[in-house]
Amino acid sequence: MSRWLVTGAGGMLGQDLLARLATAGESAAGLDRTALDITDPGAVRTALETHTPDVVVNCAAWTAVDDAEAKEAEALAVNGTGPRVLAEACEVSGAVLIQVSTDYVFAGDARMPYGEDDRTAPRSAYGRTKLAGERAVLDTLPETGFVVRTAWLYGAGGGNFVRTMIKLEGIKDTLDVVDDQLGQPTWTGDLADRLVLLGLAALAGTAPAGVYHGTSGGETTWFGFTREIFRLLGADPERVRPTTSEAFVRPAPRPAYSVLGHERWKAAGIEPIRDWRTALAEAFPALVRAERG
């Protein structure tokens, strides 16, 4: 049995990761942002000395994408400085570090899935700060640092697109949803499973350090995603109407193309995440319960 420390444990990914670690029989401690400020070197050193983890998974992040445009320094402290502080502490302790990152590190203008080693070119403050965190981990821990990029996350343990659409289905006759952004809806439960497998493979020496892409198989738009949510609710998918990104202008630009490739998992002997529709169907009852009670 190995020892794990999960930072940002209060978020929906952190919650699912702790649950998966418990099921796997691993010893895990979870610290939310009130229990651990990952930008504080002294606090991080104390946490690692107290819990003596073999694997640290950093789920802590500034995820308010639009707010980061006006508060990039604050976002960089959490998304860039925090991972560097964790990496430096793991370098001393010998722990493996898995840093959760994002598709926003890419420009979002590709025509085929982004590979793990493709050129990064973030177009938003959020993407720039997350890329800084990636580089800090990989530069500090070239042999024991892992970055897992994900996108379009949903889960029962927090607010997200799926829960919002479940709520809106009950109060709106029709919904206009963007149909010109392509990505991979990803259940936090599936991502948590891969993080556990990756950490165990890292400890066993069978997973090469570096970048992995933790998104579901397949691809769809937000419009297609919403129609599938309506179908699972037993609602008429025709109530969901397509629109363009121009109808929902936001401070931070959204990637038009967020589809990620999954080749690196083969090197670790781990299967990539399954198709997004299959995962959504399995996750859906818990999502409905979480939203509707």
Automatic annotation (TrEMBL):
Keywords carried by this UniProt record: Oxidoreductase
What name does UniProt use for this protein? dTDP-4-dehydrorhamnose reductase
Task: Supply the enzyme class, top level.
Answer: oxidoreductase
The EC number(s) attached to this protein equal 1.1.1.133
Organism, per UniProt?
A: Streptomyces scopuliridis
